[in-house]
Design goal:
One of its GO terms (molecular function) is lipid binding. Pfam families: START. This is Lipid-binding START domain protein. It comes from Turneriella parva (strain ATCC BAA-1111 / DSM 21527 / NCTC 11395 / H) (Leptospira parva). This protein is α+β, with helices and mostly antiparallel strands and about 200 residues long. About 25% of the residues lie in helices and about 40% in strands. The protein has 4 helices and 10 strands; from the N terminus they run αβββαβββββββαα. Strands 1, 2, 3, 4, 5, 6, 7, 8, 9 and 10 form a 10-stranded mixed β-sheet that branches. It is globular. The N terminus is likely disordered.
Length: about 200
Amino acid sequence: MQMRISSLLPFLALAAAIFAEEPWIRSLEKAGIVIETRKVSGSDYKEFRATMRVNASLQKSLAVMQDFNGYKSWMKDCKESRRLVELSPSSGIVYSLQSTPWPISEREAVVRYSYQKTAKPATALIWLAAAPDALPPTPGKVRIAKLKGYWRFRELDAGHTEVIYSMHSEPGGSLPGWAAAGMVAHLPFETLKKLREVLER
């Protein structure tokens, strides 16, 4: 009996963590894009989840995501983006630099990504996690040390895809309240809006 209980402990811990999470609260719904946010235990910053549907195939969606240098054409406030290293055909490390309004210091992120795909339903998950020590910090920039999230693309049919973008990060330094609020509402909304334009061209 003791062995059985011990074997269940990891699953019980996971279940407790899931049920302990705060509920999602819808903060914005506009132009076919839904933004939800929730509090994260131990953090001053909320997690967001942004959802939309696009008139584009899953294959095209993934092609855009794999164009790392092109992120700045659709990701809100992205000033620079590039892949630093390819660790495997489905994983690697990318760098991005985010412009900010004066007098806030620009933020840079070094992020490890990892792809997971399923056939039925046709879905692609891109897991994201901060890898701040993979590159020396840039003088004058604030390195984002904590970040985790994902992109999920689910094929609805041959020409339509559901897109979910979820993220929680600790931007580092100090941010005024309006900037912190924009991180979890305005930024993901504008990112998905522009991404949809790119995908539906």
